[in-house]
Every structure is written in structure tokens, then in C-alpha cells.
């Protein structure tokens, strides 16, 4: 996608990092570069607007589900294990343990 005009920042770079821009997960200098690109390039601005609208719709429709506290605690515990470099269990730590089967 491109408007056919040369830009300081290539359209493919902008589109590859669009969600980082939308989520404000990039340095300010890159955000400024992308913002400048959107001001010059209407196809990329259109794509940005579309993705922004989808993101808002998903948040509105799906953003209100509460996560069970025990599931959240288990997931956060697993994240901490990974961050600390400890061995992560092979089994799914988010599932409740099952009772042993009788033979």
C-alpha cells in the first residue's frame, strides 16, 4: 500500500508497526515520524483509521469480561516464573488438577 509518493518513512515500515503506534508502545521520536507519514500518505492514514476503529469496537464489545481471580493469579505466577528464568512446568498451570484415576 502506498500513495506512490516517496516518504521519509516507508509505507511498509509504518504498516508493520501500526499496532505499536496505536498502542503507544514506541518511542516518541518514532511516533512523530509515523504521525508525519500519516499527514502525507492518505492510504496509510485510511488503514490507520480502520485499525483504530476495529480496536475501539473490540474494546467496547469484549473489554468488560472479568477474569476469574484464580486464573489471573496462575497466569501472573507463570509470567513471573518465565521472567525469573526458572523452569516452567510442561503441564498447563491454568487448569485445575485432575483427580488420579483408579486402576
UniProtKB/TrEMBL annotation:
Pfam assignment, any one: zf-HC2
InterPro entries, sorted: Anit_sigma_mycothiol_RsrA, Znf_put
Residues annotated as domain Putative zinc-finger: 11-44
This protein's name: Anti-sigma factor RsrA
Name of the gene this protein is made from: rsrA
Amino acid at each position: 500500500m502506498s500513495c506512490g509518493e516517496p516518504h521519509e518513512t516507508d509505507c511498509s515500515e509504518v504498516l508493520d508497526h501500526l499496532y505499536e503506534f496505536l498502542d503507544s508502545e514506541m518511542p516518541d521520536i518514532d511516533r512523530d515520524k509515523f504521525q508525519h507519514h500519516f499527514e502525507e500518505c492518505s492510504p496509510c492514514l485510511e488503514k490507520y483509521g480502520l485499525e483504530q476503529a476495529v480496536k475501539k469496537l473490540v474494546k467496547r464489545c469484549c473489554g468488560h469480561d472479568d477474569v476469574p481471580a484464580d486464573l489471573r493469579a496462575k497466569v501472573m505466577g507463570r509470567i513471573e516464573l518465565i521472567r525469573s528464568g526458572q523452569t516452567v512446568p510442561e503441564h498447563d498451570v491454568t487448569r485445575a488438577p485432575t483427580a488420579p484415576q483408579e486402576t
